[in-house]
Amino acid sequence: MSIIQTKDVKKWFGDFQALKGISMDVAEGEVLVIAGPSGSGKSTFIRCINRLEQHQEGQIIVDGIELTNDLKNIEAIRSEVGMVFQSFNLFPHLTVMQNITLAQIWVRKKNRAEAEEKAMELLERVGIPEQAQKFPGQLSGGQQQRVAIARALAMEPKIMLFDEPTSALDPEMIKEVLDVMKELAKSGMTMIVVTHEMGFAKEVADRVMLFDDGMLVEENTPEEFFNNPKSDRTKLFLSQIL
Amino acid sequence: MVDLIKKNAKSLQESLFSSVGSAVLTVATTYLVINFFRGMLGFALTSDKDWLAVLNNMQLYMVQAYPEEDFIRVWLSVGLTFVLAGLSIGIWRSDDRVKSSQVFNSFFKGGLGVLFFTIIAPTNASFMGNDGSVITEEVFSMDTRLGILIPVAVFCVIFFSIRFTNIKFTVNSSDMVFFYLFIPVALLWFVKLPTIQLDQNNERIIPDPVMPIADTTKIPWTVIFVSFLLSYFIGMYLKNIKSIKSIMSLSWFLLPLLIFSWIFKKPQIDMSVVLGSDLPIFGVFLLWGFLVITFVNNSIFKKYYSTYLGVTFLLTLVGVFSGLPMLAKTCLLLIALFSVVVPAVSTSSQGKRSLLIVWAVALVTLTFLLRGGASDTGIVVPGSSIFGGFSLTWLLAIFGTYVSFPLGVLLALGRNSKLPIIRIVCTGIIELTRSVPYITWLFFASVTLAVFLPAGVEFNLIVRVLMVTAFFSGAYFAENIRGGLQSIPKGQYEAADAIGMSPFQKISLIIMPQALRAVIPTLVSSAITAFKDSSLVTIIGLFDFLTIGKTVIGNQSIPVNFVGHDRENLIFVAIVYWIFTFTLSRRSMKVEKKLGLGER
Asked: Which domain covers residue B84, as residue numbers?
């Protein structure tokens, strides 16, 4: 049973067509890695899944709910789907603890004690419980990204979207974030990860996709994708990146 | 100690005389500063200045011609404000400690300041006599100079050397507020200055006898100080009550309304009106709200809820333009807005219960405030307006900010709205108000506004001025806040969306706090501008603080002749304005620092 279904999703920015008909399914518990050159539409695509961008044609169904202009559907889907951004987007005026509890209290209507307990649990899971009372500006990039993951997990989402989570990080901080993501993948979370980290794709992904020019060029298992790619475009991409 | 002096001397040399250019600049600036203050002091001390023109007219400065038998109203509102402030300081008591060395250091610096002025004060100063000749006289004799120098120098030495002793302690920074306020209150009881006395023929007794200044205010101020202190302790005691902070915020919101509707009015509590009109209206709307809350989840009612909403809004529209009592109109508006909110909030039985309480409390408060506000007997002063002097300036500044700030937030949000009508209306309001000078708006308030209001609706001139001030500074606030909104990266909106926040939560919890924080300096300077610009109301015949000093006292001949003594008053007015604006900007810097914690 697939938890995300998209059918022929198309999207334009003005005259520029960013997505040229993407159809795919993601099964529950699956880890999907999307790779591709810059401007290939991979970020736009996952941002369409929780309606940060609006697709103009086609169908996106998340957990049985179709994404339309209906605000109720959008809010329902957003609370099922967690998102981690390239630039972290933590709330700089709130402490780490407040960042994680805010949505639990206001959206999930939990009481404060419950929310804080959950937040501490998650901070321990991402390995930085001692930073709870600091502000995001006082943390390193890797720590900030881990807080961002904890913030998304606090909503207990069924699906996690990662939009180039390690692109803005120093090389030595990338590992700490990837470790958290690997642990998350092993726990059975459905994940869609846009990344350039091919090592992560090889190790964790159930499936790898290549986007180019707004189209889905290749869809394969990691072994096949890296060792025996079907399309020439993938070969070219791999030759440039590896 | 010698080391310390050496170290200080060295850093002084480094910062002031590091090169030839900076040495020249240092010397030239020092020379200019000293001469400026010498000139000011010489001007202030010559015998043709009568500073009693200021001291003797304090009452005029504060409340103008406000009737004396109603002073209790002024004291009540000041007292209420202080009680609320005391409670708030107690509840939000900070844990910051001030070190004793910091306190002593500020005393030391203050002493140094006095020493500086005593040393540079000119011995002789000249002024223009009545016949145009220049008269030079001794204004600051050596005896006086030494009489001040020696005790102050001793004072300075004590507070300087105290840091080398073992006297070290820390004080809670909230407690310090009361210590600093205690000083002026205590001084009221002891300080005696020359005061004007009139003999039987209403002639001034010269020389002026030395008497306590502001004798009539010492008891009220002491009472207020004591209740301030008491409410501080009560506040500390109440600190742990669960929702006390939101109750306090609400009280601050209601305080000005209470003051304007009950204290600065003489409320007519006609029992027949209260029983015949207020209570029935109150009862009807209370029942209405209760019914809506109770039956909101009923399936039949749910089905026709949008019809019910439409009917309510139609009723409200008709009601507002009909001859209903004010209370009924306001309640109609309230129930219409309330009905929109109810379905979203009353999903659980707990939500329902708290909604019932909120509705009841809101109605009681509204009825209470409107009963005071609807009694049209303001305080009548023969021949002139009610307020004047500092209370008018303060009213315009505080109430102007109080109304215009939320208005500014709404306008800024409206201008950024996606809905074209709201955006166009908000942009129109902002651009229209900003592109016309404030003085023009004041004339509009005094002359034209009445034409725009429906027949039978009349507002006092001050209320009309407040209305245009609210829009005028609201427009400026809006533009400042819009600047703040634009500084928020798109990612913040996206992050808030991605964790499922509603648009209202996104704005109020994520965007606004950051936007406002980014524009605190401009907001404060707008508030300061509004405070100072309030002196422009003199142009439409209101007597603000500055006008009292410049025009009223400058032309005062009864009971004491102060004609021509406007310069002293202008200096006094300038100093008072400076004290308030300087305090405001210092406070805002502190707030900025505190909020800056979370900045990147």
From this structure: 2-235
Report which residue type is found at B300. I
B513 interfaces chain A, CB cutoff of 8 Å: yes
Q: At what angle do helices B349-374 and B244-258 cross, to 10 degrees?
A: 20
CA distance B388 to B548: 8
Same domain, B390 and B361: no
Length of chain A: 242
Mean pLDDT of B100-115: 90
Helix (H, G, I), strand (E, B) or coil at B383: coil
- Tokens 């002097």, located at residue: B389
Tally of domains in chain B: 3
Q: What percentage of residues in chain B have a pLDDT greater than 90?
A: 27
Helix spans in B162-278 (H): 173-190, 218-238, 244-258, 271-273
And the tokens for B125? Answer: 């100063």
The nearest alpha carbon in chain A to B492 belongs to A89
Is B406 in the same domain as B283? no
Interface test with chain A among B245, B494, B499, by most A beta carbons within 10 Å: B499
Give the pLDDT confidence of A61-118 residue by residue, as tens digits: 998 888 888 877 888 888 889 999 999 999 998 999 999 999 898 888 888 889 999 9
Give yes or no: residues B476 and B531 share one domain.
yes
Chain A partners of B594 at a C-beta cutoff of 8 Å?
none
Q: What is the ipTM of this complex?
A: 0.92
* pLDDT reading at B187 higher than 50: yes
Decide if B297 is inside a domain. yes
Same domain, B414 and B522: yes
Domain presence at residue B326: yes
Number of Cβ within a 10 Å radius of residue B274: 14
Write the residue in B495, B517, B595 that is nearest to A89 by C-beta: B495
Query: What is the number of residues in chain B?
Result: 600
Evaluate whether residue B548 is within a structural domain: yes
Domain match, B348 and B305 both: yes
* B372 and B391 both lie in a single domain: no
Same domain, B321 and B462: no
Rounded Cα distance between B236 and B185, Å, is 23
